[in-house]
TrEMBL record:
Name of protein: Glycosyltransferase family 39 protein
Glycosyltransferase RgtA/B/C/D-like domain residues: 83-237
Record's bilayer topology term: Multi-pass membrane protein
InterPro entries: LipidA_mod_glycosyltrf_83, RgtA/B/C-like
GO molecular function: glycosyltransferase activity
Keywords from the UniProt entry: Cell membrane, Glycosyltransferase, Membrane, Transferase, Transmembrane, Transmembrane helix
Organism of provenance: Pendulispora albinea
Subcellular compartments: Cell membrane
EC number in record: 2.4.-.-
Length: 485
């Protein structure tokens, strides 16, 4: 008879863990949101304004003056999901500042819970709790709860999609449920659609075919199905755009802008303001303007491909090398509360924690097992490739130490190569590698697609916040045992 606890016996323990993680996360987040939050600024201003318009029954829109009269003017430049989500609470509770503070604190506090729930599908219970705890106390995520920005909700929707995919014992049903959730998340962050094909990894969690083409034959049909299902929640919004805008747009009309910002002659690798003098002088509607900038960006890439490629390290550096956006956002909202010494100190803390997570996350890609004594000999015998696997993992660990030292020791610290390595290593058939079930590979896919998207467009450190829970999971996965034969 099995001595493991039954599902009914485990349920109170799991609920208690979820409540503790939520409480540990919520207390500092609601305090930060209450005492540090100011008027929404930068993109947050538009998200908040859009939410208020939605709550008033005016849709995602503003009013423009035409011939002296105000005329209703529809939007879709920014994704609608976060404004729609926040607008629901404004409609129910009113649009006082405390509403957005409470909603953002709750959303951010659910992140550690779903980080733990996803991690426990691929790690031991203790490691999964560590992942959730790291996410709960992460200072950048805590501070982010004071910002009216999309990243926590986008991360939560994506983690929920992954959890729905891996929790169901029937892989096909899990893929379909996860794809629907991912489609809702795409209304907050359209890049979420990039991970939709990876949901199909669930069908090969067990008994994966040994040959690549056999593996692809099993995965590809479900990857296509996941992409199609993920589009279902998006299509009604697309139809709205086709009806009220000056053309059709899948979710939003900022992809063309972002491509041009990452490719035009003045591009630096981070956000730069586009001017009419750069191109697209004679445009009217949002869709037309975005298509113009997209065509302009493509033309710049075709004409100057080396310039565009040379910017990739800078783009990834701006995305992964440091963490300062929450501090600068709060300074912009309440400059009198953020003198430069305080800003510098807190930026230093956030950046140090982020860099530590990047370095420690690489340990999640390395297997470790003692090889001394009789127990070590038995473990070695259970590893495919035996001593060759141990040697490969030792070599990989040495490379990690060298990479980490180089990242720190350079005159200008450069940590983005570590993020790229974390996104690539789990997919390589390195001898002695630890197990990579879909519950762990899907978070890696989120990190990989985040890096890819911002290598193409442009980088800012706020964009890595969506993948911060991934780093927490991989830190908790550090130095696992090699996958058994």
């Amino acid at each position: 008879m099995s001595s493991s606890p039954s599902r009914e016996e485990r349920r109170p323990t799991l609920l208690a863990t979820a409540l503790v993680l939520f409480a540990v996360a919520f207390v500092p987040r609601i305090l930060v949101a209450h005492f540090l939050a100011g008027e929404p600024v930068w993109d947050g201003h538009y998200y908040d304004f859009g939410a208020r318009r939605i709550a008033q029954g005016l849709g995602y829109s503003d009013d423009v003056r035409v011939a002296g009269a105000l005329v209703w003017h529809p939007w879709c430049h920014y994704p609608v999901g976060y404004s729609g989500f926040l607008g629901f609470f404004y409609f129910v509770l009113g649009d006082a500042p405390w509403v957005s503070q409470l909603v953002n604190a709750i959303v951010s506090s659910l992140l550690p819970v779903f980080t733990w729930m996803l991690a426990r599908r691929g790690l031991s219970e203790g490691r999964a709790r560590l992942a959730g705890a790291l996410c709960a106390v992460h200072p950048g995520l805590v501070l982010y709860s004071a910002l009216v920005m999309t990243e926590p909700l986008a991360a939560l929707a994506t983690l929920m999609a992954f959890w729905l995919t891996v929790r169901d014992p029937r892989p096909v049903r899990g893929i379909l449920a996860g794809a629907l959730m991912l489609g809702l998340g795409a209304l907050v962050r359209p890049q979420a659609l990039l991970v939709a094909p990876f949901l199909a990894l669930r069908v090969v969690d067990r008994d994966a075919p040994p040959r690549l083409f056999a593996w692809l034959r099993r995965v590809l049909p479900w990857a296509v199905a996941a992409c199609a299902v993920a589009l279902l929640p998006v299509l009604p919004w697309t139809a709205r755009n086709c009806r009220v805008m000056d053309g059709c747009a899948l979710v939003s009309t900022n992809a063309g802008w972002n491509l041009a910002i990452g490719a035009f002659p003045r591009a630096t690798g981070r956000f730069e303001t586009l001017r009419s003098s750069d191109g697209c002088r004679e445009v009217t509607g949002q869709v037309q303007q975005d298509r113009c900038w997209f065509a302009y960006g493509v033309e710049q890439i075709r004409s100057h491909p080396l310039h565009w490629l040379a910017l990739v390290p800078a783009k990834l550096g701006y995305t992964f090398d440091q963490e300062s956006f929450p501090v600068e956002y709060l300074h912009e909202a309440r400059p009198q509360d953020w003198p430069e010494p305080r800003r510098a100190d807190l930026r230093g803390v956030l950046t140090a924690v982020h860099r530590f997570l990047l370095v420690a996350s690489l340990l999640g890609c390395i297997a470790f097992t003692p090889t001394f004594g009789r127990r070590g000999a038995r473990r070695l015998a259970g590893i495919r490739g035996g001593k060759r696997a141990v040697f490969a993992q030792g070599l990989l660990a040495t490379a990690v130490v060298v990479f980490a030292y180089a990242a720190i020791a350079l005159p200008t610290p450069s940590f983005w190569p570590l993020a790229v390595a974390i996104a690539i290593l789990p997919w390589l058939p390195i001898p002695g590698r630890p197990a990579w079930p879909s519950a762990l590979l899907l978070p890696v896919a989120l990190l990989a697609t985040t890096a890819l998207a911002h290598a193409v467009f442009f980088g800012e450190d706020r964009y890595h916040m969506v993948a911060t829970p991934v780093l927490c999971i991989l830190v908790a996965a550090g130095l696992r045992r090699p996958a058994a034969v």
